[in-house]
């Protein structure tokens, strides 16, 4: 569409220009520049040239992705679970269950189950699949073979009613913790099934559960807790009040419920606290929690919770909390609405036999205890990332890079299926790359990280993809380019002379991306020499162009003739030098240089000597330009 519009616009303008008999070559040149700059397609890319550090440094369209198409139409929900062997993943969608094998696609299995899958878990205790689905009514069962229920379970409070309801659930030692809403909007919250059943005690305003995780294992099993992350509709209807309140709740794993009179079969350890996310100094706050990823640590209290928020302006924020921090709020904050002395044991303490808890404690918990203190993000208490992109999904990976240093990488998904690979650092986040996984119009529905194999599984409404996070070739075939990428998954291998998956002997500088790291080896002086600039057939052409590929959106690109800087026209991936025909005889060479982080690099050299005929390439933007040139020619 854009192409047609641009072309039409160009030809119209050119026509009128000609009729006014002012068809000079420099006018043509000007027109070119104007047309190119006025189009949205080009100006967006041009903005990327401005070295905005919120822009992904590089963009990859085809780089280590394997695809599996989900036949049978458009899905509104796709559940993902790692399969029994490397490279396999269970998929539940649109009445079907699949075991997709990315290593041996022919071995993939698919069965029709007849229910839309809403829960897909592995029960480690029985080593079977636990699957729930809906098809008007709800069903939950365990499966030894795909699609074949070997044992049925009561789906009440486990399986969501609709494919549109998200209700995260979790197996801990054979017991299932779920968060599905019951039909009558009552008693929403965490439920435990299998073993001793425990139900939520409260009926609250609307809640949406985002994630449920085990906070542990701790030194004593008695201390293990389960945390749920959720948003709750704000009951304050003041126009300035936020619509949602982000919260974390805790329950103890060993909770047996209350006494016969108070909280029988309900949680006696249930506490709730508010999550804070924003920038205090600027009074910017984020309240709509969308997704949570947990980076587990050996010490349970050092495990980090990465919470993704959005606000009314579709901005995003990522705030990081430690489990230790959350625990501290539950264990030491005062309780909302309670000024009297806190009874013993303190409400929320995990005890051996909660049925024996004193009435004063049980009665307090029954009131839906909330902490006065909010859980604050780590560091200076501000968000780790604030972005104008509206991210919807988050995964977080700990990456052991070159030299065995450990770095954290965030994988942030946008609704349209683009994934940003972001290096965690203080200050402005560094977006190493944007992966464009889907065709236009597709929607990102789910993301699943397999950290041990550095794979990210991503589903849209029509396909499931396996993405190699340590696919590094596209960063470039020079040590400097590999190092400037600052990607801890990647490093320069001085032996094979390739940018490759990081190992103990690869070269990388994640902290600074300084090309000087390459001094010890692997430096090369290659650049492309453009001998044949594309030129439409036949002569009498006022202008031609040569392309300088812009690999990094963080670099500055310029064309030079001698020491004179020549203006260039930015297109989606190139910095184009337009050369008027009458200039052709002039001395070259023309050189394109890129400067990034103090490293100047020659990208291309063009020596105008012989103009050879070239045919228009039909590829992407160069096609557009070719079309433009042809139009000029036809006139
Ligand atoms: C599954 O959900 C889709 C809508 O997302 C619906 O068209 C289809 O009939 C459902 N299938 C079953 C078996 O319920
Ligand atoms: C499902 O289980 C039944 C009974 O155990 C068995 O006969 C059938 O072959 C199984 N189907 C599959 C696809 O495994
Ligand atoms: C909440 O529960 C109380 C008693 O348990 C009941 O009186 C009230 O109607 C319930 N509210 C809702 C919204 O279900
Ligand atoms: C935010 O995004 C949603 C969905 O993508 C859209 O419907 C809405 O209009 C956007 N709001 C603003 C303020 O841009
Ligand atoms: C975790 O616990 C250890 C030992 O109790 C303590 O030194 C450390 O500060 C704690 N970390 C956090 C993040 O709470
Ligand atoms: C809980 O019970 C176990 C064994 O039954 C015991 O060793 C432990 O000391 C008890 N803990 C508390 C806090 O009472
Ligand atoms: C699966 O991948 C892991 C991590 O790369 C590897 O250690 C393991 O050997 C693989 N297993 C098989 C059966 O290939």
UniProtKB/TrEMBL annotation:
GO biological process, one term: axon guidance
Signal peptide feature range: 1-45
This protein's GO CC annotations: plasma membrane
Protein name per UniProt: Semaphorin-7A-like
GO molecular function: chemorepellent activity; semaphorin receptor binding
UniProt xrefs under SMART domains: PSI, Sema
Gene3D superfamilies per UniProt: Immunoglobulins (2.60.40.10), ligand-binding face of the semaphorins, domain 2 (3.30.1680.10), YVTN repeat-like/Quinoprotein amine dehydrogenase (2.130.10.10)
InterPro entries noted in UniProt: Ig-like_dom, Ig-like_fold, Plexin_repeat, PSI, Semap_dom, Semap_dom_sf, Semaphorin, WD40/YVTN_repeat-like_dom_sf
Keywords (A to Z) from UniProt: Disulfide bond, Glycoprotein, Membrane, Signal
Domain Sema: 1-469
Domain Ig-like positions: 494-604
Xref: PROSITE patterns: IG_LIKE, SEMA
Name of the gene encoding the protein in the UniProt record: LOC108930147
Family that this chain belongs to: Belongs to the semaphorin family.
């Amino acid at each position: 569409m854009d192409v047609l519009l641009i072309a039409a616009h160009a030809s119209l303008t050119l026509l009128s220009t000609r009729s006014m008999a002012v068809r000079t070559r420099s006018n043509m040149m000007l027109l070119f520049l104007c047309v190119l700059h006025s189009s949205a397609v080009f100006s967006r890319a041009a903005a990327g040239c401005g070295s905005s550090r919120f822009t992904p440094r590089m963009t990859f369209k085809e780089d280590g992705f394997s695809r599996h198409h989900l036949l049978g139409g458009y899905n509104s929900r796709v559940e993902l679970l790692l399969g029994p062997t490397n490279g396999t993943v269970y998929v539940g969608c649109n009445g079907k269950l699949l075991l997709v094998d990315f290593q041996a696609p022919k071995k993939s299995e698919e069965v029709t189950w007849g229910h839309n899958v809403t829960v897909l878990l592995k029960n480690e205790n029985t080593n079977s699949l636990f699957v729930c689905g809906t098809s008007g009514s709800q069903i939950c069962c365990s499966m030894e073979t795909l699609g074949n229920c070997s044992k049925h379970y009561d789906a009440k409070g486990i399986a969501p009613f609709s494919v549109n309801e998200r209700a995260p659930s979790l197996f801990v030692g054979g017991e299932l913790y779920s968060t599905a809403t019951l039909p009558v909007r009552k008693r929403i919250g965490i439920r435990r099934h299998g073993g001793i059943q425990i139900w939520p005690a409260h009926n609250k305003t609307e809640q949406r559960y985002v994630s449920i995780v085990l906070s542990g294992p701790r030194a004593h099993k008695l201390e293990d807790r389960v945390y749920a992350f959720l948003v709750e509709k704000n009951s304050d209807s003041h126009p300035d009040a936020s619509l949602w309140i982000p919260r974390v709740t805790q329950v103890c794993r060993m909770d047996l419920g209350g006494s016969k009179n108070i909280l029988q079969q309900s949680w006696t350890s249930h506490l709730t606290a508010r999550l804070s996310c924003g920038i205090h100094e600027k009074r910017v706050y984020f309240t709509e929690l969308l997704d949570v990823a947990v980076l587990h640590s050996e010490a349970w209290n050092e495990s980090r919770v990465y919470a993704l928020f959005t606000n009314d302006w579709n901005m995003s924020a990522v705030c990081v909390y430690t489990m230790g921090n959350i625990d501290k709020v539950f264990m030491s904050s005062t309780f909302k609405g309670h000024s009297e002395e806190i009874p013993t044991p303190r409400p929320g303490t995990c005890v051996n036999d909660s049925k024996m808890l004193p009435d004063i404690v049980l009665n307090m918990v029954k009131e839906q205890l909330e902490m006065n203190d909010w859980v604050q993000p780590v560091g200076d208490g501000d968000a780790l990332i604030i972005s104008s992109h509206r991210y919807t999904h988050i995964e977080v990976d700990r990456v052991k890079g070159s030299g065995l240093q450990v770095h954290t990488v965030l994988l942030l998904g946008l609704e349209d299926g683009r994934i940003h690979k972001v290096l965690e650092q203080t200050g402005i986040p560094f977006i190493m790359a944007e992966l464009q996984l889907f065709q236009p119009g597709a929607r990102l529905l789910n993301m699943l990280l397999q950290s041990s194999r550095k794979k990210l599984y991503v589903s849209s409404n029509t396909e499931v993809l396996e993405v190699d996070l340590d696919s590094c070739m596209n960063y470039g075939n020079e040590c400097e380019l590999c190092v400037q990428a600052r990607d801890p998954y990647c490093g320069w291998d001085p032996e094979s002379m390739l940018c490759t998956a990081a190992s103990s002997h690869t070269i990388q500088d994640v902290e600074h991306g300084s090309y000087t790291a390459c001094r010890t080896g692997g430096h090369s002086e290659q650049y492309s020499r453009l001998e044949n600039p594309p030129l439409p057939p036949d002569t009498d052409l006022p202008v031609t162009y040569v392309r300088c590929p812009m690999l990094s959106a963080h670099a500055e690109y310029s064309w030079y003739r001698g020491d004179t800087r020549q203006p260039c026209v930015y297109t989606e991936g190139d910095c184009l030098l337009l050369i008027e025909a009458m200039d052709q005889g002039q001395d070259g060479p023309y050189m394109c240089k890129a400067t990034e982080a103090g490293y100047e690099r020659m990208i291309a050299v063009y020596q105008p000597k012989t103009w050879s005929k070239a045919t228009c390439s039909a590829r992407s933007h160069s096609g557009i330009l070719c079309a433009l040139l042809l139009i000029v020619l036809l006139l």
